[in-house]
Amino acid sequence: MPVGPYRLPRRVGALVAMLGLLVLPACTVGPSDRPPVAVRDAGLPPQRPPEQPPTSRPPPPRGDFDASSLPWQDCTATTAAQLGTPPPARVDCAQLQVDADASTSSFGDTLALDLTRIGSGPAPLVVVSEADGEPGTVRAARLAGQLPREVLDNYTLIGLARRGTGVGQPLDCIPTSTRNQIVGVDPDVPTPAQLDTLLDVTRTAIQTCVQDLGEVLTSINSTGTADDLEALRVTLRAPVLNVISLGSASRAVVDFARRYPTSVGRIMLDGAADPTLDGVTEAEADLKATEAGYTAFAADCLARNCPLAPDPRAALRAAVDALHRTPAQVGGQVVTAGTAYQAVLETIGTPERWGELAAALAAARRGDDAGLAALVAPVLTPARGLPARFDPALATHCNDTSTRVPPERAKRLVAQWRARSPLFGPMFAQRLLLCSSWPVPSAPPTDPPDRGLPPVLVVATSGDPVTPPEGAQRTADSLPSATLATWQGRGHGALARSSCVDGVATRFLVDGIVPPRDTLCPP
C-alpha cells in the first residue's frame, strides 16, 4: 500500500506516526603492554600509525554512485532550520521508497524515508543515527561542517532518516498528552498504583497503534533499517555502501553487514551499543553510564562556577522536589519531576549543551521551568520542523528487544536501583514497563558467518553516558574483522569531538588504513 509524501495514511501513519592522559608526541606502538596512542599535536602534521596486519580482506575500494538516481531537490533552507544554523554547503533532499518488510515481496506496505545529500565527492558515505536523537538527515549536514576536508573531498555525505524519524512519514499516533504523561511519570513516587497507571497508559497507546497498523508495527526496527541500507545502495547504483553510525544505530549497520556482506564498504561505528545485553541489563548499564555522566557534568559545572554551585546534585534534587510538590504548566506542556530527569537524559551526552542544562536547572529552583520544558520539547512535540522523537524511539526500542518486564519485577528493580542511584535508578527501572505490552518481535533472521567481512572501525568513548564503552568493545569482539579505537574523553560519540579520532577515521575512510588494535586517543 503506497503512502503519501508527507504523512502515512491513518493505518500505516499511526505507527510511523508512533511509537552520545598522557599526551604523547606521536602514535606509539611497541613491545610495551600499553595500548597504542594516536595523537594530533598542535602545530604538527598528523602522525600515521603503522597499518595493522589485516585479519580479513583489506578495506574495499570506496566505490562510486549515480548522483542522478533520485530526484534530489534543494532543501538548504529547510535543513538550516532543523540544524539551527546554516549548513556549510548546499543540501539536497529526496525520499527513498522501501518495503515495510523486505522479506515478503507481497506484503504491500511501503514506507518513504527522508534523505539528504551534501558534498560532491565521488563515493557515498551514509550517515545513520539513533531513533531517539537527531535524524541522520540532519546529522549528515552537521558533520559536513565538522569532518576533515579530506573526507569531504572523497565522499558525498548522504543522511538517512530511519523509519518514522523523517518529516515525510513521522510516527505520530501517540497523543502529545499521552507522551507527556509517560515521560512525566514521577520516578520518585513509585507506588504500585502509579506503576499500574504507567502500564495502563502505555498499553492503551500501543493497542491503538496495533489496531491501526497491523504488521507494519513490527517493521520499525534495526533489521528494517538494515534492509533500507541495502535498498539505498541499490537505488544509488553503488557497488558498496560506506556508512557512519552513531550509538544504537550500530545494531542496524551490523545487521546490514551480516545480511549483505558483499554490499559492505568502509564502516565506522561510533559509540556502538552493546549487542550482548537483554533489556534489563542494558537499562542497568545505561543507568551506570548516566550516573557517571552526571558526575562529569557536576565536576565541569563547578570548574566553570556554574549557577548550580556548590552542589549540582543537590540542585537537581531541589528542582525535582519543587516539581513533586507543584508540577508546572509551560504552554501546553506539563513539567514534572519526570520531565526534569528527561532533560538530563537529553543533554548529558552532549557536553556542548551542559551550560543549557545548568541554566535550566538553576531556573527551575527559582520556579521558572521554561528551560526544562524547552530541553524536553523535541521528545514530545515537533520542533524545528522535525517530528517528535518519542514515538519512533519507543517503537524501535521495543521492536529491537524481546525483553518484557512484568510489573512485579519492575517494582523490585525500582527499590534495588534506587539504592545504587537515588537520582536516576527509579526512573530507569520504571521505564522497563514501557515495552511490557508491546508485541514480542519474531526472532531475527539467522545471519551468515562474519568471515569475509572487510575491516570495520569501532570507536568507543571512555566517558560516554549514553552508550557505555563496554558496548563498543563487545561489538568489536563480535565482529572478527573489527578494530577498536577508544577516545579517553566524554560525550556521546567521538567523531568531530576528538582530532585524534577524526584522524583515525580519515585514514580509514579515505586511505583504507586500519589503525592498530586497541588504539587510544587522549582526551
Describe the overall structure:
- Strand 11, helix 18 and strand 12 (519-521) form a beta-alpha-beta unit.
- This protein has 18 helices and twelve strands.
- The strands form two sheets. Strands 1-2-3-5-4-6-7-10-11-12 form a ten-stranded mixed β-sheet, with helices on both faces.
- The longest helix has 25 residues, at 279-303.
- Helix content is 40%, strand content 14%.
- It has helices at residues 10-13, 76-83, 136-144, 149-154, 176-183, 192-213, 222-236, 250-259, 279-303, 312-325, 337-347, 354-365, 370-380, 390-400, 407-420, 425-430, 469-478, 499-511, and strands at residues 73-74, 91-99, 110-118, 123-128, 155-160, 241-246, 264-270, 328-330, 333-335, 456-463, 482-490, 519-521.
- By secondary structure, the protein is an alpha/beta fold.
Rg (C-alpha, Å) = 22 Å
Strand order, sheet with most strands: 1-2-3-5-4-6-7-10-11-12
Mean pLDDT: 87
Uncertain segments are 1-55
Strand content: 5-15%
The strand count comes to 12
Shape: globular
Largest sheet: 10 strands, mixed
What series of H and E elements makes up the topology?
A: HEHEEEHHEHHHEHEHHEEHHHHHHEHEHE
- The helix-and-strand class reads alpha/beta
Helix amount? 25-40%
The number of helical elements comes to: 18
How far apart are the termini?
A: 51 Å
Top keywords for this entry?
single chain; 523 residues; 10-stranded mixed beta sheet; two-stranded antiparallel ribbon; globular; disordered N terminus
